[in-house]
Amino acid sequence: MYMPIKPGKVAFPIIIALGAVTGILSYILFSQAAPGPLFTSGQFFEPTPAGIPTGEIKEGQEGETATAGAGQESGANTTGGDQTAAIPPDAVTISILQGASVQGNPAYDPETAQASIGRTVVWKNDDSVPHTATSGKLFDSSIINPGESYSIAAEEIGAGEHEYICTLHPYMKGTIVIK
């Protein structure tokens, strides 16, 4: 005697298995295309510690944030704890904004910065992933890790309007105007 197999008894396990395979393949493919690291510091994300400046504009400093100090070499990345003391007080600071690595988000604050020849220009990474500030052969910060900064004398960049990008996230674009 012929007993037909009910479609639900076969179809349900097949649908579950195909869903699992599709989910695993999607995770693998999308993790390869992610713009930044999926995990930092082992397997867990560590938020930016409290007290690190986020690039806010202080009163009377239109488009600039005073966050740098003396004794810093041009073109050097600064590392370590509180970098507020390491950036010259007259520096033009460009903040790499939180979430800048996501395409479509604002990347730099200000997007177009201005500095005179005698000033220092500083890029401060306020994001949770590494970035760069690169303008062809004029300047290249290499990797600026979260909480770190990169500075260069405006005279080393030279007068004019210079576009720059993050080489890790090329859709992040900004401009520095040196007068």
From TrEMBL:
Compositionally biased residues, Low complexity: 63-76
Keywords assigned: Membrane, Transmembrane, Transmembrane helix
Domain of life: Archaea
Keyword hit for Transmembrane: yes
Record domain EfeO-type cupredoxin-like: where: 107-178
Residue ranges, annotated region (Disordered): 53-85
TM ranges: 12-30
UniProt protein name: Cupredoxin domain protein
UniProt-listed SUPFAM superfamilies: Cupredoxins
Organism ancestry: Archaea, Nitrososphaerota, Nitrososphaeria, Nitrososphaerales, Nitrososphaeraceae
Keyword Ligase: no
Organism: Nitrososphaera gargensis (strain Ga9.2)
